[in-house]
């Protein structure tokens, strides 16, 4: 899903949570920011792979690759390696969950990430895309090493 969609839906949910649960504005803002900034891992991956720090280049790189990927059949999609998205995976969420016992800020960040991931999973199901890069780094590593080629 594109960042604009995540921003709009993240804002709507943050406002709803603010009014329904009467949380402080700071926590609502954390939910909103986390629902968008989770995608920073796409940028990190781009920088590490391409040695280019341009946010604009990264955005258009992923947008172009996304169009190409969406045109592939389900069988063809499985032949490509996927990027490692460190904030979209269970391992990261477990760390946030454990940190939430130390400070509840992490719980609100986790909530924002949850909003983001629900949208990602809806899109994955709708477009019949590849789900493993948004589940686990370990799973992505294991699956990516099976004689696959790079799309990204």
User: From N to C, what is the helix and strand string?
Assistant: HHHHHEHHHE
Shape: globular
Indicate the percent of residues in helices: 55-70%
Total beta strand runs:
2
Structural class: mainly alpha
Could you give a short account of the major beta sheet? 2 strands, parallel
> In percent, how much strand structure appears in the residues?
under 5%
What is the chains' assembly state? single chain
Total number of distinct structural domains: 1
N-end to C-end Cα span: 16 Å
- The largest beta-sheet arranges its strands as 1-2
Characterise the protein shown here.
α1 crosses α7 and α3 packs across α4. A two-stranded parallel ribbon has the order 1-2. The longest helix is centred in the last third of the chain and has 23 residues. The radius of gyration is 16 Å and the shape is globular. The relative contact order is 0.16. With 152 residues, it is mostly helical. The chain has one domain. The model has no long low-confidence stretch (mean pLDDT 94). The chain contains eight helices and two strands, in the order αααααβαααβ.
Give a summary of the structure in a few sentences.
This protein has helices at 3-21, 25-37, 40-50, 55-70, 74-77, 90-99, 105-127, 137-144, and strands at 80-81, 149-150. The protein has 152 residues and is mainly α. It is globular, with a radius of gyration of 16 Å.
């Amino acid at each position: 899903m594109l960042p604009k969609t995540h921003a709009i839906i993240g804002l709507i949910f943050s406002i709803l949570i603010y009014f329904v649960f009467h949380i402080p504005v700071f926590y609502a803002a954390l939910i909103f920011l986390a629902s968008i900034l989770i995608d920073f891992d796409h940028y990190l991956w781009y920088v590490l792979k391409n040695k280019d720090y341009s946010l604009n280049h990264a955005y258009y790189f992923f947008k172009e690759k996304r169009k190409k990927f969406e045109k592939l059949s389900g069988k063809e999609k499985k032949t490509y390696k996927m990027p490692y998205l460190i904030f979209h995976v269970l391992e990261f969420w477990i760390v946030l969950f454990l940190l939430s016992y130390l400070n509840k800020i992490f719980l609100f960040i986790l909530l924002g990430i949850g909003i983001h991931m629900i949208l990602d999973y809806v899109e994955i199901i709708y477009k019949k895309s590849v789900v493993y890069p948004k589940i686990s780094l370990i799973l992505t590593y294991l699956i990516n090493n099976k004689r696959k080629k790079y799309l990204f």
